[in-house]
Amino acid sequence: MEQILVLLKKEQKIKSAHISLPYELFDKDEQKLGIDIDDILESTLEEYLSVFKNSLINIDSVEFEAKAVTQSVIKNNDKDTYLVVDFGKRRTGIFIVSGGEIILTSVLDFGGTKLTHLIKESLNTSFEEAEKIKKEYGLKRNTKNEKLSQVFLKGFSVLYDEINKHFIYWHVHKEKDEKEKTPIKKIILCGSESNIAGLSEYLAVAMRHKVELANVWTNILDTEKSIPEINFEQSFTFAPSLGVALNGFKKKN
After folding, report:
1. What φ, ψ does residue 118 adopt, rounded to 5°?
2. pTM for the model
3. What are the chain's domains?
4. What is the pLDDT of residue 43?
């Protein structure tokens, strides 16, 4: 990564950066109420940030990935409650945002790559072919291969269980002297693997709740008036980057 940053600094004349800390820096087996820098081992954090230091790139701000995503997909000053699912290649970040604050976040050790491996093993094919199958078929109801359908359902049941656990926890669990919680308005799906065909529909049926693919341009531009160069499917990958960019813009203004 350091070599890539050095190359970018040289080619793009980068002097400083706003960065987001990945979910992997947290203990993925532990749910956390709120997010604090103390939740990350100091040595791990310093090791991560030293990459930028060694590349001679100044760090203007540090943001947690969950917060960066929130800044990208939830409208400024929106005080409603949302369950955000950031479904990536290696892992999935699941967090609840209420009143503009991240209340609960956890990391699921399941992502698109693990699903690809399940397809690969089940159909005895190459990783590349399994990746193509995943993108082509997904959770489409008209998938003719019953074995493939079962693989998808098995994989996504892990994701569903974790989302459902958070959903129930929010609506049932109550701390002492805690004010009444507002119900989760909708589930927002983002991340590089969130555009797998049929995923949002599957979760909506399984959860019996509204599931919506994220609009990462929510606080940046009106997509009805201006069409971004990045297409809708590609945009999910850039939610954290756009979130930290927005954070940097706010600090300048």
Report:
1. -60, -40
2. 0.82
3. 2-252 (3.30.420.40)
4. 65
